[in-house]
Amino acid sequence: MSNPEFVEVDGKMLSLQQLLDEKKQLEAESAKLRKSYDKLEKEHTKAVLRRRQEQELKPYQAELIRMQQYLEDEVKRMIILLEGRDAAGKGGTIRRMTRYMNEKHYRVVALGKPTDVQKTQWFFQRYVEQFPTGGEVVIFDRSWYNRAMVEPVFNFCSPEQYENFMAGVTGFEKDIVREGTILLKLYFSVSKREQKYRFDRRRHDPLRHWKLSEVDMQAQDKWDEFTKMKYAMLRRTHTLDAPWIIIRSDNKHQARLNAIKTVLNAVPFKKTSGLDMTTDSNIVISGFRELEYMESERIAEGKFIT
After folding, report:
1. pTM for the full predicted model
2. Homologous superfamily of the 16-301 domain (CATH)
């Protein structure tokens, strides 16, 4: 008579407990495999999305090369300023913008702290020294507008220095444009929630940790102060000669794509037929419209938010 507590499986007698243990083990392995599969599928989906996004940029990156050729042929100068809060996406946009450009005819300028000698000079002097020659594009990864936002927030300049800058910058930019240089001012606007997410990624990702600076660590705490300075900057330096263009940058890809389109639209060369040069009105807005939006926020919420 057979023992009901044992079962024959593939010629082997196994107890019910052994069968239960094997079942649990198989279920655990199956769950592990499912988790690994889901992870691979997610990574594959992200990789496919990134690939599609990079492919979407390529026609416009090619157009940037044609733009460079026009500037060289016409011996025209171009200055592009990229401003915005930390982690707003300026660096990533610059990398996509310049990926295929002719490196002989563009420069990216990211100036550090002024030297003791530079501190004794005219404030704009060290920036002017980096200005383009005919046929060249210079991209400033942060610019003289440090004095309008970062420096006053962190007390890196005196109130008098700030006021002198704000009083003189519009005339300075008017002269740049009057001398024939194309000047494009882009402000990358990231939400507080998205900035926090990007800071958290930098904090925990060893490949991104180097991006996290002391200033970054304080950016969230000083959000309202930065917002007030942003409002003052737009209100006093958005002019007909040198208007601000705001790039909403919570969606990195859309910000990059629309920023590149904005650069291309700023130069009067013949664009490739059939290439859509229209910017997304939800991503690209004028400095004047941003001021109106900020004013409505202040009325509704009692303070600036953006």
Report:
1. 0.84
2. P-loop containing nucleotide triphosphate hydrolases (3.40.50.300)
